[in-house]
From TrEMBL:
This is 5-formyltetrahydrofolate cyclo-ligase. Residues 9-23 have a biased composition (Acidic residues). GO terms for cellular component: cytoplasm. Residues 1-32 are annotated as: Disordered. Pfam families: 5-FTHF_cyc-lig (PF01812). GO terms for molecular function: ligase activity. InterPro entries: FTHF_cligase, FTHF_cligase-like_sf, NagB/RpiA_transferase-like.
Length: 260
């Protein structure tokens, strides 16, 4: 049986690792500079793990399994029956642990380009948790779920490129994680009290990030060595239609359905 380690050459790279420069992504020059700095450091210091290079994606890192185990020791995890997680490589141990702990797992389809934009993994009906939680396995084992059919979500786990101890987060710059959160808010699947966590390496912590109003703040960040709970967290209370281009609305069915 495969182990929880994400150091090996599995298929668990990003579902879409290229970056995007569209207006509703997150391509502020200051954030791009932080991304490049973190990606460069992870590569130069030997912290990055397959897939390589770490640039342009949520980077896989040494200690991902240990961070996942630490997250699973937290009350937010123990209290959660349904967890939404990202499909990226460093959170593979998180997804596997969720199924092994009997938790329902929700993962967004690539770029939300489906009328059923989430896939549900139910541990009660899956016989191979290791296979089901890889990128290809999520599509094979997951059941498509429309937003109207989504259950309440008890915990969100997001992948990160860089974070601060104040709870600010930078992803790879395409804006999908924040967009997914806003869509879930619009459908009453999450609210301001829903915990949002990330698992990262210590080298991904930075001093400051200039957060935007649409950025989803973290209530819990976990490294292999420590757990941080920021005191205050800022999050959007729904979709900001002024930031969404006509092209993106057209590309994502759920946005077309929600558009005022």
């Amino acid at each position: 049986m495969p182990s929880d380690t994400t150091d090996s050459a599995t298929d668990d790279g990003d579902e879409a690792s290229e970056t995007s420069a569209d207006v509703d992504g997150d391509r502020a020059p200051e954030k791009d500079a932080i991304r490049e700095c973190v990606w460069d450091a992870l590569e130069a210091e030997g912290v990055a793990r397959f897939p390589f290079p770490p640039h342009g994606r949520i980077p896989n890192v040494a200690g991902a399994s240990e961070a996942a185990a630490r997250l699973a020791d937290q009350p937010e995890w123990r209290d959660a029956a349904t967890i939404k997680a990202n499909p990226d490589a460093p959170q593979l141990p998180v997804r596997r642990r969720a199924l092994r702990d009997g938790k329902r797992l929700l993962v967004a389809v690539p770029r939300l380009r489906s009328d059923a934009p989430f896939l549900e993994l139910d541990p009660a009906v899956i016989d191979d948790y290791d296979a089901a939680t890889t990128v290809s396995g999520i599509s094979e084992y997951g059941t498509p779920v429309t937003v109207d059919s989504l259950p309440g979500i008890d915990l969100i786990v997001s992948g990160s490129v860089a974070v601060t101890t104040a709870g600010d987060r930078i992803g790879k710059g395409e804006g999908y994680s924040d967009l997914e959160y806003a869509i879930l808010v619009e459908h009453d699947c999450v609210d301001a009290d829903t915990p949002v966590a990330t698992t990262v390496h210590e080298r991904q912590l930075v001093d400051a990030i200039d957060a935007a109003p649409h950025d989803v703040g973290l209530s819990l960040l976990v490294t292999p060595d420590r757990t941080v709970r920021p005191e205050t967290v800022s999050r959007p209370d729904g979709l900001d239609w002024d930031r969404l281009s006509a092209d993106r609305i057209e590309e994502i069915p759920v946005l077309s359905q929600l558009q005022p």
